[in-house]
Sequence to fold (133 residues):
Amino acid sequence: MERQARAEMKANPRYRWLGELPRGQALRVLARSRLHVLSSQMEGGANALCEAIACSVPTLASRIPGSVGILGPKYPGYFSMGDTKALARLLRRAETDEEFLGRLQAWCGRLRPLVEPAREREAWRRLLVELMS
Fold:
């Protein structure tokens, strides 16, 4: 995969492969990003999606149950799993259509309270109280 990424970097001036990064550094890169792509085939992307939401970075996501469960069924930034042409169209649209990008940002912004640490701590506290009752 590294070899493919390095070859893509040579051929595509818009592609930059950063390799494996420590979590804190990866979050700083994410926070400086204008857009996040979650091309998961399975449900393993929930953490990445929640981190993007917490960093106020909108996401283009493959339409899989886990992403739909977080973003909602009417989220405007979905593409079908494996449909790279649809993803490319959405990327181009997000880059050239400020209104579309703004809709993605606003949608994800409304979800941000769901991933706030204080809310999560309170949910854990309530669960533990319930379990101890």
In short: The CA atoms of residues 97 and 117 lie 32 Å apart. Strands lie at 36-38, 59-62, 78-79. The first helix runs from residue 2 to 11. The first strand starts at residue 36 and ends at 38.
